[in-house]
Amino acid sequence: MKNVILTAMLSTATFMSCEKGDNGNYIPGQELQLSDTDQQQIKRTNAFTANFFLEVTKDSHNGNNAFLSPFGISTAMAMVYNGAGGETKEAISKVFRFDQIGDAQLNTYYQTLIKGLPLVESQTELHIGNAIWHSQNVPVNPDFLKINEQFYDARVGKLDFSDPNAKDVVNNWVKEKTRSKIDKILESTSARDLAYLINAIYFKGMWEQKFDKKDTKKAAFHLPTGGTVQADFMHRRHSYGMLTMGPAGVLAIEIPYTNKRFSMLLIQPTDALGGNWSAVKLAEFIGALGSESAKFQPTLMNLYLPKFKFYYEQDLNDVLTQMGMGMAFQDDADFSNLSDKPAKISEVKHKAFIEVDEEGTEAAAVTSVGVEVTSTPPEVRFDRPFIFVIKENKSNLVLFIGKINNPVSGETAGR
């Protein structure tokens, strides 16, 4: 029995230098060109994102932060899906919402996103990298490799996994693709390994309206376990999009990145002080993004948001098994389209890094016009646990999702 190992990594930050042309002018981005099939699959991807995140974080009452790219994980799984067959393929398709789209359409869908997303905004750096390293001693189906090279732009290479140095080849690729934010994903390899399928996403964006560092002050953040910690709270008085969705139990604030092509959504229960997360219907909220019921209204406010920076690591075998994909990890798994040798997924691993601070651009400042304020604007403080989402705004595809339980905790390991 040979091991197939699936890995997804991501790194994101909220600051960057602007990209300009040779004459110093702004280079406009390119809007995603999505078919009706693509748009429907984005809704399914977002549905997976919400359900997967809730499954991963259902025990987060212990106070740990979380940060994931379910989109990155689904991209890696779509690559291995091309090698699956029978009941194994069916189980993967149900968990990842691949069951309502044909294989060719699914591969085209990911090809469109992998090629198109990095071009949406030139002043936001977004890179998506995929790779397959397979054993040089075991034949791998050439059609499997060809499909992933063509549609996922996957780098394909052979390695001798019995060589202790094989891990360094993979880790060096990881380090390059995440701009050194994640410098290692493998501790070792073994002769039993058949293939490593890896997805890496790197995002570096700047706020459209930066927070002034001189306004950052220490304040109390209320922990879910009781008590408080002192965190650095950024502050800005500005008109941000606000949405209160009563049926979903959500209050959300939208903070756009440069030129409004990408945004971060800050989400907390409508009963923020009570912290009643049980009433929050995250899947319903994410599913409604872009609809008439989820229109963000410009609202002048005093926004207080804690700075945070942390690493996150999670083994996903148990989570995916609980969601219905256990067959892929069993000895009788069917990956006959990947190799003639019996194979199973031995590990699905996710590593992540995020940093959020005040940085941004002053060149693309936008202010509200024609709004007369005669009273003190509302104060919105994210000083209790909150969820955050980073999305592309035309498609509303959620790229990243996380939860802050403690903004001063620098490293969080999953289960």
Descriptive notes:
By secondary structure, this protein is an alpha/beta fold. The chain is 23% helix and 32% strand. Strand 8 and strand 9 form a beta hairpin. The longest helix has 21 residues. The two termini are 26 Å apart. About 7% of the residues have low confidence.
Strand-helix topology:
Elements: E1 2-13, H1 36-56, E2 66-68, H2 70-81, H3 86-96, H4 103-116, E3 125-135, H5 142-152, E4 155-159, H6 166-177, E5 193-204, E6 217-222, E7 228-245, E8 250-256, E9 262-269, H7 282-288, E10 297-306, E11 308-315, H8 317-325, E12 343-356, E13 379-381, E14 386-392, E15 398-404, E16 411-413
Parallel strand pairs: 1-5, 1-12, 3-4, 10-13, 11-16
Antiparallel strand pairs: 2-15, 3-5, 6-7, 7-8, 7-10, 8-9, 9-14, 11-12, 14-15
